Amino acid sequence: MLTKRFFKTKDEAEVTFEFSHPQAKKVELVAEFTDWQPLAMRFVKKDGAFKLKQRLPVDKQYHFKYLIDGTKWDNDHNADAYVPNGFGTENSVVNTQRIV
């Protein structure tokens, strides 16, 4: 799940990436904006989900995926869009366009 917060005085959005996977011990966010390097997500016990907040420039689109336990890839089931990648699967897309 993606949650976005926009700032009146900054050209960036705070995006909260949230992913639930009952058997996962570790979930990482891998994205264009990290140069495809994994970022560890924090497990929030009360929500039962892994979360990560990231500030991103507004009016852009970024591809991303979740890496579960270092071996399994998954998409965000509530992403803004999905696009084919070079591996025969799809990437999730987050759009930071400000809705007026």
Automatic annotation (TrEMBL):
Domain of life: Bacteria
Domain AMP-activated protein kinase glycogen-binding, chain residue ranges per copy: 15-96
Protein name: 1,4-alpha-glucan branching protein
Lineage: Bacteria, Pseudomonadati, Pseudomonadota, Gammaproteobacteria, Alteromonadales
